Target: Phosphoribosylglycinamide formyltransferase
Amino acid sequence: MKKIGIFASGTGTNFDALASSEQIKNLADIDIMVCDKPGAKVIKKAEDKNIKAFVFNPKDYENKAAYEKEILEKVKDLDYIFLAGYMRILSKDFLEKFKGKVINIHPSLLPKYKGIESIKRAYEAGEEYIGVTIHYVNEEIDGGEILAQDKFKVDYTKSLDEIESQVHEVEHRLYIKTGGEILKGEK
Model:
């Protein structure tokens, strides 16, 4: 059985989707949830699922290298790390220790709309399709090898909030499917 960790910073909807999925649970033990925001809603979701949580405040550390060193100690035995709304950029040193083992989900059809507020930017640009990308993480923000994408045609009679909800539905479905394929060695 593979051992995975999920890194998150906010409400934890993608964390919850992965941690609640029977497919994922049949293929891997979710060993830890790492969160950089004390008080984030994802912490309670991890506790409710009896998943160990490592929560830290980056301001409590001298620098990025110091908190990443502590994270690496906590996750050193993992097979994969799934980023689920984790809003910190992982360093080159961190990524080298988990080369080809860190997966991210991003709410746009990469390479378009990298970075933050991607759904809003795509919506305001009048894109015909909005979607989701799952990719390996490298040193470039939202720039790693693409593993999977899914999209839907935008109905502009819907508000941005409604479109964001649609994106989250696609994210959850696609992350579970792609995560399962990764854990089975199919990706």
Notes: The longest helix spans residues 160-183.
